[in-house]
Task: structure prediction
Amino acid sequence: MKYKKINDSWVIVLRKGDRIIEKLTEFVKTENIKSGFFNAIGAVSSVELAHYNLEKKRYSSKLINKPLEVVSLMGNVAVKEKEIIVHAHIVVGTNKMELYGGHLKEATVAATLEVIFIEFKEMISKKYDEDTGLNLMELE
Result:
């Protein structure tokens, strides 16, 4: 992973074999970033997607082990009880132009992943919400 700050944003380049959530978490911790938004394009060799069932308050997941194009990856960074949380959703496509999408648990970069990260000047926090069973952004 390499990255560079340009104005108020960061350009992050992940390379083959990098794990996306792991590397983005490493980046925000290293640079002491408490909140922000990112989007990315690239390719992955495997991805674990998840879908949240609101009634059951739990995720189901699916692992896909094949080359996929990252059509869209977007997410945010916030803090819950001093822990940095990277939350991302992804849409990936096959060579037959079929799409898969959902919450990104983790993925391995196939060739590259090019990320634009916008750092917020203020910290955004998350708090557990009993009604949904999710950690939701809290704006004071």
Observations:
- The chain has a mean pLDDT of 96.
